[in-house]
Design goal:
Elements: E1 2-4, H1 25-33, H2 37-40, H3 47-57, E2 63-65, H4 71-79, H5 88-106
Parallel strand pairs: 1-2
Length: 108
């Protein structure tokens, strides 16, 4: 399986790179993502790195295909394979936040 959209249309980056209405899904998702920073930024320089590392740590994902807009983003993404894995306790907290934020959006 190939992981795509690891940055959730830019929501899981430190700042949005485009204008979006405050009530748009992307703007709401980006605001929610800021609550992840305290869980992740002690080990990773950016939310982007943490998002890619999260995907790389998932045993069901063989590889991740992130998008790039600059050489710096390519270098940042390439460095993620050498970063430490996200520990189980943090993964559990991230999963709980996901359920809190997106339960209604993905519930069947």
């Amino acid at each position: 399986m190939i992981g795509i959209r690891a940055h959730a249309a830019g929501s899981l980056t430190d700042r949005l790179d485009r204008d979006s209405a405050p009530d748009s899904d992307v703007a709401r998702d980006h605001q929610r993502a800021m609550s992840l920073a305290p869980l992740l930024l002690d080990r990773y320089s950016t939310l982007s790195q943490a998002a890619l590392r999260f995907c790389l740590d998932n045993p069901d994902i063989s590889t991740v295909a992130p998008g790039f807009k600059s050489v710096a983003e390519v270098e940042e993404s390439a460095a993620c394979s050498d970063l430490p894995s996200i520990d189980a306790a943090t993964t559990d907290k991230l999963s709980a936040l996901f359920r809190t934020f997106y339960h209604n959006r993905f519930a069947q």
